[in-house]
């Protein structure tokens, strides 16, 4: 049935493309007039704003546009006579092939660079399509490491990848555990059975014993899972120090609620990798009881900086959820603007080399100076968060921490 | 994998409560099949629509999902009646394969409309009783699941009484068995068709109200249940009432125990193994009449 849905959408899109092509022709007919009137620099903002990833895509777009507004309000790109940035919005519809087609459309529309497209699967397609047009493509999230290991010279990833996040998360776990006197000695892993969850579970099974943590059980489940009672019962029986989940949002929420219903708590902590409640604002607010003390290692901002506080305040004023999609895309637009400033010309090749030599450091993220090595920002790192009193707090690395971790969690709470 | 016996009873009880919801969803499907002889592909989408309706009644009007049963069951009855009378019937020109395609088309339209209107954000409600449990000593059973179980059984009993004792029920059974004969004795077949579709849709609305306190809603949520509902219908016997009820409960238990002993990924296989075995050895289902 989903196949038919796809066809349905594609027809609409084809019509839209025809319309766009028409517009394109119209602007070719009178190019001089347009160029003389507005000296704008077009940036492609490409995200999945419809389909399964619509929420994440919408959040990403908001972050990019917020930064773009601020940059324009502050006088645009000064090295190009204060030229303003112009957003060309594109929708990947949560499908890689649509994302790639949108890159072609953006290239025709004359964008100088593209940022997006949130999901790994889409990023693999869009970066390749952008390479065809020599278009610099700044990837905002996309944790799969193949995005930057294919040697595409136009591809830059701002956030840390899967490998970096997992090694960081394990190191963090070891340090947090050691600081508390090593209370965590056993773990149960709960993972979804797709590439993401199963890959994570395999890695954890290999690495955790080296940290002195024995994996008691590895429980896999499909997506979507209708009922988590069995999993909760098995966790209760195993009675582990740590529960380590890696699954998607819907299933995570259902799991957390079932654990709470069945009165199942880990003895030490609920420690998620990339996707736990501790980076899900909506969940933390809706179920403060079920979410309390949950930990996550994920993309997150540095809450201790003045710059970040001002950013968080603006997001709150707009009534948006403060999620990492907003943070990362806000940052990406800043990095792009800095590259445009240094390129000093609306030229794709010059912008690509300006990105490659970026040392941008006014981050709201807990990152060091931007430094792209083979397209990967080596300055990027995740952060460990924990829900404390219904708020998402950074608890590791210590220099960015907004609160002290509660580890192990109280047992009679 | 070693699984302690102490998990067995809680898992079975949990399976029974989940199974009651499967049964209720399947009841609507089997009723529509039994009378109209069509597979309603829009069943999952209607479930999703009902979940959203219950969600918005709770968040916007503060109406508890269990109270919303009283509003949504009649509302979805009217919706189902209208769909059959004014959409499915006129567009299908009386041919079964057309009806199939129309319901499939309806599913696509409803799903995409939901995606467009409400985006794919996961929505849940937080009721005061969401985390209440009944402590049986050997198992915790969440209160919403107990309510769902008895609610589903009560609704099924009500449906059974309706079909067995009322004039409408007699007319529905008459049309199911012999359409032309029913028409000859003065039964308005089109009306009965639409009533049946309405009742089937109402059953889905009831299931949605019982499900929402322990589940979530997204535009894709119907598909998590519709496949199980089809299996339930086939297992129980197409068109069989008692069959759907017992098959729903049985599948709930099979799924739960399968998940426990084989792992959740493999455990769901149990459902489909049963499905294939039934098709091979007892195609009329456990309680179905011989064709």
Structure described in brief:
The complex is a heterodimer of chains A (413) and B (291). With 413 residues, chain A is an alpha/beta fold.
Provide an overview of this structure.
The complex is a heterodimer of chains A (413) and B (291). By secondary structure, chain A is α/β, with parallel strands linked by helices. Chain A has two domains: 38-160 and 306-377, Response regulator (Rossmann fold, 3-Layer(aba) Sandwich); 163-298 and 383-400, Response regulator (Rossmann fold, 3-Layer(aba) Sandwich), CATH 3.40.50. In chain A, 46% of the residues lie in helices and 17% in strands. Chain A is built from 15 helices and 14 strands. In chain A, the strands form three sheets. Chain A has a seven-stranded mixed sheet, with helices on both faces. Chain A is elongated, with a radius of gyration of 22 Å. Chain B is mostly helical and 291 residues long. Chain B has a single domain (5-120, 138-281), classed as ABC transporter involved in vitamin B12 uptake, BtuC, CATH 1.10.3470. In chain B, 74% of the residues lie in helices and 2% in strands. Chain B contains twelve helices and two strands. A two-stranded antiparallel ribbon of chain B has the order 1-2. In chain B, helix 3 (65-92) crosses helix 4 (96-118), helix 5 runs antiparallel to helix 8 and helix 6 (167-177) crosses helix 8. The longest helix of chain B has 29 residues, at 8-36. Chain B is globular, with a radius of gyration of 19 Å. Classes of the chains: A alpha/beta (413), B mainly alpha (291). The interface between A and B is large, with 40 and 46 residues.
